[in-house]
Input
Amino acid sequence: MAHGADRKKPYLRIEGVNKSFGSFHALKNVTLDIAEREFVCFLGPSGCGKTTLLRAIAGLDIQTTGRIFQAGRDVSALPPSARDVGIVFQSYALFPNLSVIDNVGYGLARRSTTRESRRGRVAELLALVNLGEHGAKYPAQLSGGQQQRVALARALATSPGLLLLDEPLSALDAKVRQYLRGELRALQRKLGVTTVMVTHDQEEALTMADRIVVMNAGAIEQVGTPAEIYGTPSTAFVADFIGAMNFLPASVSGAGRARIEGLELHVPALNGTVMGTEITLCCRPEDIVPADDGAANAFDTKISAIEFLGPNLRATLVPKDAASRSLTAEFSATQSRRIGIALGGTLRVAMPGDRLHVFARR
Amino acid sequence: MPEPMPEMNLGARLKVLAAGAALALATAFGAPGGAAAKTELLVYTAIEADELPGFKAAFEKEVPDIEIKWVRDSTGIVTSKLLAEKANPQADIVWGLAATSLMMLADQGYFQAYAPKGLDKLDAGFRDKANPPMWVGQRAWAAAICFNTVEAAKKNLPKPESWKDLTKAVYKGALTMPNPNSSGTGYLDVSSWLQLFGEQEGWKYMDQLHENMAWYTHSGSKPCRQAAAGEVPIGIAFDYRAAKTKADGAPIDVVLPKEGLGWDMEAFAIVKTTKKLEAARKFADWSITQSVMENLYTKGYALIAMPGVSKPVAGLPADFSKLLIKNDFAWAAKNRDRILDEWRKRYDAKSEPKS
Amino acid sequence: MTAIAAGERVRPRASRDHWAMAAALVLIAALLVIFVALPLYTLLSKSFENADGGFVGLANFSKFLTTPALSISISNSLQIALAASFITTSLAFVYAYAITRSQMPLRALFKGLALLPLLAPSLLPGISLVYLFGNKGLVKEWLMGESIYGPIGIVMGEVFYTFPHAVMILVTALSITDGRLYEAAEVLGAGTVRKFFTVTVPAVRYGLVSAFFVVFTLVVTDFGIPKVIGGNYNVLATDVYKQVVGRNDFQMGAVVGMILLLPALLAFAVDRLVQRKQVALLSARAVPYIAKKSPGFDFAVLAFCAVVSLAILSMFAMAACASFVKLWPYNLELVWKHYDFDLTDGGSWTSFWNSIEMSALTAIFGTAVVFAGAYLVEKQTGFKKLRGVVQFLCMIPMAVPGLVLGVAYIFFFVDQANPLHVLYHSMAILVINTVAHFYTVAHLTAVTALKQMDGEFEAVSASLQVPVWRTFRRVTVPVAMPAILDISLYLFVSAMTTVSAVVFLYSPNTTLASVAVLNMDDAGDVAPAAAMAMMIVYTCIAVRLAHAVLSRAVLARTQAWRRR
Ligand SMILES: Nc1ncnc2c1ncn2[C@@H]1O[C@H](COP(=O)(O)OP(=O)(O)O)[C@@H](O)[C@H]1O
Ligand SMILES: [Mg+2]
Output
């Protein structure tokens, strides 16, 4: 999955970065490596510090402590103009009084020596973002998606080593957003530019990123490929924030075993935990499967609610032996027809041990 | 679509900016331009503004390398300005200011003595007694009343003949005079009444006059002009303004009260600290030449420092000079502060205009 | 917490941009300190000193309060200001109500007419009132025997002079009232009168309070009208002039200046408060109110507005006519001679050209400084403290009446020990003083325009390694061009008409048209004074029209992007 990611040789290294605004700590000891050509998403709820980290990387709001290296160079204290980054802001910040051509060529004036080479570069960039025929227009005459691509072309014009995108798609409507996800990712692959994108939309992150950095309250919770983040969340926060998850309070009842009221389950991840420890067991809805009699961790439930989701069906299940808990499970439509799910009926399900995640109870 | 300008480096940019700013400032604030530097003579004066361009043009024609800069205001204001600047005088020469003010300033050591060329040709009364004199007189002006005949007829106002007449009840609200604090004419009125009637009677007289006064004006010219417009039919004014206003066609009579007319001299004195002594002296010399006396000072003025040059002024009787009181300038100068303070105390608080 | 303490603090390496910005910000701060804060400080300290500079505590103040001639001015000023504020606010409220809440015809025209007095020096109404209601006035009988010289004349003049200010405030207040409240009231069955008292009045009460205080301050500190038509009715503003110019009594002048600062500070505080409350009113996703047609009501307010506008126009017309009449009231022949200012006491064509020069320089340099200052305060990220200081300094002039600023300037610059004494009596000091006097409104206009701009332009240009001043020139300035033109117009017109500050600062080489009006009137040359006042009005109208044409051209050129 990790396309082009060469973990050995980080292109961008963030080391123990902290940022405080007065007494408020917006970033707490953030450490992260990003490889060359990698596409990384910062994902987290609004206000968790994603933009702050991005701006620190860009040099716009320099971190209070900690260091940042880009391509082996310590850029920690450098202003943006001395770094090698291109940025696309959430608002795009297109210059309203300049045409698309002038916007895209804005950063080239100092670099390209001749007017011709500059013109050629702008044309090339406009073609790259499929805006070839819109060069003479002003930003206000373009649609949101087109504006976004102008901003992207402007940021790429100077061929920066690092592309920073702050929620580049969030201002667009769903269809355009979907389409541009693919476009953006394809473009990044084509150019091979190391890219960091900030988003609060997990779907966006899961579909686009080589790696996802999940942030919460100014700190990194987990870094990993989308599959890792989804499949093995390392904290309850990540488990909760990414996808759907059943949270079940439980206590350790023996070696590799946990008890939820009258229900005892085999939990391999628990090995070594002290008896009686209060824990939270987690299980994704799609990991709850209809069980044969002999299956491990199988138990009887009552179906207390059903929701049709088109291809899938979501059921709320109340375990017979833990009647005050309820579980959300998801079955494919075919599967649910086969096992005959009906409101008020009973269903025997299993939560396979290797699909159970354990977190300490807070 | 404007192509971006090729970038200049910072230094070049700053130089262009600085040059531009300097140019703008220079043209804007009139930097001392061409090197052919004229000597600028800063002249403080209280002479009526409509006469100043004539004086300036005549002098600068005669002495082209000196340029006059006027600071003009009412007598009282020029006087207090000079007082305020005492520690560090700005003026080079004070010219055309009431002699009472000049004497008071001379007592404070404001001036340097100088005997301009041709001083002996002047009337002995028109100069400081010391030799060389601290100040030299140019001409004199005297109190006069502007009386609007049209309004008087409408309102049945008799034509006043004396100062005392003005206190009659019939003139209530029909009178204006200049505030002596700001106007030299106002001060010569007040000081002449105090001399004519004696201090006690004089103040009593002014108390009565105050009852009839519509208001006190800031400048000495305004009472006559307001009389001319009928706004307030009687204005206590001075000869030059009265004669000129009448000549301009206003329906006024110039009344010269029979008790006698207060008067004061316009005089000049060179400021002690001037850095342009030579230019100031040239100006002083020029100021008492016969042609200036004869041709410039006489416009509207009947009393000139040089005997024999005065011409009859239309609107003023020929025996005008006989009406002048025997003015004790020294007294008027010495008591100026005290009299003005007393006047303010009595009349400045007038809160409602009488009508 | 501990984690942060562990690392070594990063010391950002400053870019060239950063240094340039820092230098510019320091420069602006220095200018504001030198030309706003220090003069005011001098004024403050003068009021506690004797003539020799020794500290005497409140002695000057008690002397002022115990001198009957001076202290009576306080009560006179208060009475005048209360009367004028009450009348102006009431008239302006009805007028603004008609403009915003009726469907009467010609609303835009009436709004324009209400603003006309802004184009005249405050001395003009004084002069016109003399011609209209003076002892030989055209319609003297209307006063029923009362004299125009004194409180009546002052109040009438002040109402004319302050009317546009009150109308502007109230039109704004009435425009932002939420239309949905009216719909709600209607649905609830409230009648017209009830709607007025339950919806309209509460919504504009802040506007009313603000208008009242603004007018109050303008009146207390206005000096032109009482000077021309006050007769012997002394007010604080004319006292300052008498003490400072007439008697060179700087201490007493400083005391009156300090006293005049009080109502202005109060008005300023109230205005700030009102601004905040009004914003709160707006933030509730308001819907603009659209008036319904109502023939009877529309006709009534039309009649009212017509009468008020006619009164305003007649003041101009009176001055215009008076400037041509040979010898009012005896010889009504029309002549040009009153425009030959060189023959008058205290005026000349040079004064007029000086005024044009002064206003142009004020507009050019003022706009540049104000806009640059607003940009630095608004668009830069570093130097938080310094920016805060600058922002505060920018607001001070609003709370300082021109008269007080003028007096403060004299005190500050007349001092030979002050190296800036070289500016004394120069054209530069007039320009600087005028910019300082009108700084806040211009600054707020610039800030508003800048706030509407995307906040990341500077970040974009930094990341593209384009110097910030280039983006300032290529993007910020063109985008803000309409506001920049508005600021220059405001500064030009204000410079052309202002008297209160510059009357203390002009020199024989830098006499100004507005001061000439004052001096000519002082000398009794009333017709030339009217002529000069009208020259100022004509100039302001011409510049206003030129501004309209220019704005349109600039909009067409630089703002093509606004067209879809
Ligand atoms: N300039 C600033 N001053 C004070 N607090 C700030 C500033 N910028 C951001 N913050 C705070 O830092 C936190 C993180 O902000 P941000 O990085 O913008 O979050 P997000 O993850 O939504 O992009 C927020 O609580 C925000 O209020
Ligand atoms: Mg953000």
